[in-house]
Amino acid sequence: MERKRFLRISGIVLLALIIVCALVFLIWRTVKAGSDKEMMQELQELAELNKREMENEYEDFARQYRELQTQVTNDSLVAQLEKEQKRAEALLEELQRTKDTDAAEILRLKKELTTLREILRNYIIQIDSLNSLNQELTAENQNLRQENEQANEHISNLTSERETLTGKVAIAAQLDASNISAIALNKKGKECNKAKDAKRFQISFNIARNVTAQTGMKSIYVNITTPTGSVLTQGGTFPYENRTLHYSIRKDIEYTGEQYYVVVYWDVNETLSAGGYRVDIFADGQNIGNYSFSLQ
Asked: Which residues make beta-bridge pairs with 220?
């Protein structure tokens, strides 16, 4: 009787232990599943954060390229900066279309970030060098003026020095056209971008201040070159580098050495073709500026 009772109690205890173990196992599985889910969620949040940071970097690169374009006047360099800006914007669009879980594509676009960062650094160094060179040339121009005045005062004793300075002064005295703009106007005088609507070209620019340049009446010649390479002209010519060129527009100004604003017009009497147009400005036998634009 006692033996049966003992066996029954032992069975109950064993069953209770089995139930407890089963409950512990179930609780452990539940906790582990919850932990794995929490970990996956954290990884997903990290992936989304990484993607957002990459998007911010691409946006920052595009913004910096836009800002650099405002700091240079060299058309070729501006075009290169614009090209890199569009590349950064295109890669940003690719990144925005990429899923957070596409690790391979995210990694590729991250490598592109490294490349863009290096290219941007090189452009910044190049532009800083150009700005430093411009400052040096400005200082040199001022020095040349002072040296030229001293040479004139001592011309009888400084013939050889005067000859050395002559070439330098000639370079410094060349006129320079800046802030060049060329637009097409329709018959209502409004700006347009289609060749078939263009009835007039308006070209404007500044003749920069130059205290070393010779003052007086100067003839400014403007050439408009079409996409086919021909110059829009009514037959007028001018000398340039031991040859004769046709010009589109001539403007006579009285230059005093101070900045001079010029605006000229070309009335369209021919059929224009779509494509790239180029404006070249000449004065004193020198090409003092150029500008390119396109018509559709």
From this structure: 251, 283
Q: Which residues pair with 258 in a beta bridge?
A: none
* Rounded Cα gap, residues 227 and 276, in angstroms: 5
For residues 252 and 217, the answer to whether their CB atoms sit within 8 Å is: yes
> For residues 58 and 203, what is the distance between their CA atoms, to the nearest angstrom?
36
> pTM for this one?
0.45
Residue in 286, 279, 278 with CA at minimum distance from that of residue 240:
286
Mind listing the pLDDT tens digit for each residue in 45-58? 444 556 777 778 87
**pLDDT tens per residue across span 50-93:** 677 777 887 887 788 788 788 777 777 778 878 887 887 887 78
Kindly report the length of the chain.
296
